[in-house]
Amino acid sequence: MSRSLPSESLDQLFRTARTHNRLGGEVSDETLRELYDLLKWAPTTANTNPARFVFVKSPEAKKRLEPALDEGNREKTMTAPVTVIIGHDMGFYEKLPYLFPHADAKSWFDTSPEEALQTVALRNGSLQGAYLILAARSLGLDCGPMSGFNNAKVDAEFFAGTRIRSNFLVNLGVGDHSAIFPRSPRLPFDEAAQIL
After folding, report:
1. Is 183 exposed, middle or buried (0-12, 13-18, 19+ CB in 10 A)?
2. 79 is in which domain, residue-wise?
């Protein structure tokens, strides 16, 4: 980790990458597996890895997702090649004997109140979801991350009988650059950050 990525790589990941509302093309199962094999390296508290990913790709699976979508997100989600449901497992600590074998990390969480588990699961699952976006961009995919859906409906349809809860969705594919707005501004350093 001793050198910066080339400028064109930084463009692809950050500077020219956009949130897309219209996505086409095809995304192979092999690409989705490659995507996961990159994002799985996201850092998480005690290597908890609470995120769970459902790659909604088939027409049948898309139909299951459709009733949970807000009207403004319905068409773009139904026409995207893949929609990823990023969730987090509230029972993440059950995997810690495998994921964090050098300490009894499971005992740190298995008697925690639900609110404390939610904080750890949501924070770290969101971090893994952000890594999914960067991994997708690094593989040449465009992304359309979004809220705007009924979490309870998604949970009932895709995670019934589990402790997994949905967080956000990401559409994946090849973006239609003619369908995006001009880039919105971002806060400058001095308004968003400080060096102490």
Report:
1. exposed
2. 25-173
Please indicate, yes or no, if residue 11 is contained in any of the structural domains.
no
- Residue 169 located in a structural domain: yes
Assign residue 107 the CATH number of its domain. Answer: 3.40.109.10
Q: What angle do CA 182, 186, 188 make, to 5 degrees?
A: 140
97-131 pLDDT per residue, tens: 999 999 999 999 999 999 999 999 999 999 999 99
Both tokens assigned to 12: 């692809």
In a domain, 159, yes or no: yes
Whether the per-residue pLDDT at 71 is higher than 80: the answer is yes
Residues 122/86, Cβ–Cβ less than 8 Å: no
Q: 125 near 50, Cβ under 8 Å?
A: yes
Count how many domains the chain has.
1
Structure tokens given for 18: 């956009």
CA 72 – CA 77 distance, rounded (Å): 10
> What is the reported pTM?
0.95
Is residue 18 assigned to a domain? no
